[in-house]
Amino acid sequence: MYRFLLSRQWVILTLVALLLIPTMIRLGIWQMHRYDERSARNHLVADALSAKPVPVQELTAPGHTVTTEERYRTVTAQGRFDTDDEVVVRRRTNSDDKVGYHVLTPFVLKDGRVLLVNRGWIPADGVSQTEFPKVPAPPSGELTVKGRLMPDETTEASGIKNLEGLPDRQIMLINSELEAERLGAEVLGGYIAQTAPAPKGDTPEQLGEPGDENAALNYAYAVQWWLFALGVPVGWVILVRREVRDRREQADEESATETAPAAV
To answer: What is the pLDDT of residues 151-181, one digit of tens each?
Structure first.
């Protein structure tokens, strides 16, 4: 009764099922790895945001690479803004996905070193993208700024190409090494996304806090793949039993037809 399993159709079906099971199990394991990575990242972000603010010099220095643990840490700095060397970062979006610029202003510390400060987002409402946009001025004189420490942007990490031949005072990436060359100064590694003092008139629009990554979705996908893997052999058994039942019914019908008395 089970010899049909040796037919070409059933051999192919069985092989496909045997291949699907480990594939789905591996996909579930991969989703669990993604769940672990995102959960760990969420914990790091939460710890960084809740940490006590510290002077920026305690976490970074010229040539320093901001680490994953240092990212999003709240830091403070005392000095003054240098608007003469201010630039805008092209092709940046705000919370409403509108395209504009980020305003990057050098902040000269008391010891002469420079901290890059991303003051926030402004719209691209100029006549053309080649002219420098209107940028609200920051507070003048000596002051204390506060912000979240961020690592240097690179093409490898962001996917943004560092285009050449851009209009004057426009850049593509926020990178302390590139800005050190442009400014001819000692620039602290990374930059900060300013959170205080708040800008007058709410412009530039300050950057929002990083949100949690949806780790629970990866966990659900992992369970889903493993349920699929479990469903494959169950489905195969159901199909086999149905085929056996159909063949038995067909055999019974044929046997009844052969033994039925001939009509007079």
So the answer is: 999 999 999 999 988 999 999 999 999 999 9
28, 218 contact by CB (below 8 A): no
Phi-psi region of 84 (alpha: psi -120 to 50; beta: other; left: phi over 0): alpha
Asked if 171 and 89 count as a contact pair (C-beta separation under 8 A), the reply is: yes
Per the CB < 8 A criterion, the answer to whether 84 and 154 are in contact is: no
Of 89, 65, 38, which Cα lies nearest the Cα of 193?
89
Cα-trace Rg, the chain = 32
Q: What b/e readout covers 95-106, taking b as 16+ CB neighbours within 10 angstroms?
A: eeeeebbbbbbb
Burial (0-12, 13-18, 19+ Cβ within 10 Å), 56: buried
Looking at residue 201, its pLDDT comes to 84
CA 220 to each of CA 20, 30, 108: distance values in angstroms, whole numbers, following the listed order:
19, 12, 49
Q: Is the peptide bond before 197 cis (omega within 30 degrees of 0)?
A: yes
Secondary structure (3-state) at 17? helix
